[in-house]
């Protein structure tokens, strides 16, 4: 008798930092991998989607299995009794990083992140800012000590990307690796071959 594995269930938050396409690409990849998605887009995340991409927020919400208002603190993902495999905030603004680190649960994104930390679920923050101030670095260190993983979307030049899609595939694939999800759409490092040096 074979047991059917339940679908993985991931919360994705898109905040107002630049890089809205990162969150959208993760959402599309999770859909392709048949992962149940619970999406929250912040007010400024919605504005950034409109400014940086060819999508509108409604079209992005339609890619998710479930979507919530950032003001809805009665949503299922606001409770530790709602079972999830973890949460990704991508892109994660330094404002959101600071609020999560301080335990400020004044919207659904920060509350869901707080729940993941207290329930010891994986919380991955794709922090998008450069350069980092000492305040940003302290917040990243402190939230890491609390159990989160800081995974800034960084280009892997060893893949020799030809397009923004190639860059997004590698960035998003590396984030999904943290949930033991293989996106199967980017080249992994295989070591240098003779003649490469």
From TrEMBL:
Query: Does this entry carry the keyword Transferase?
Result: yes
Give yes or no: UniProt keyword Transferase. Answer: yes
Return the HAMAP family for the record: ubiX_pad (MF_01984)
Its name, as the record gives it, is Flavin prenyltransferase PAD1, mitochondrial
Q: Which gene encodes it?
A: PAD1
The record's section on Pfam families has: Flavoprotein (PF02441)
Q: Where is the Flavoprotein domain?
A: 8-177
> What are the binding positions for FMN in this chain?
16-18, 42, 93-96, 128
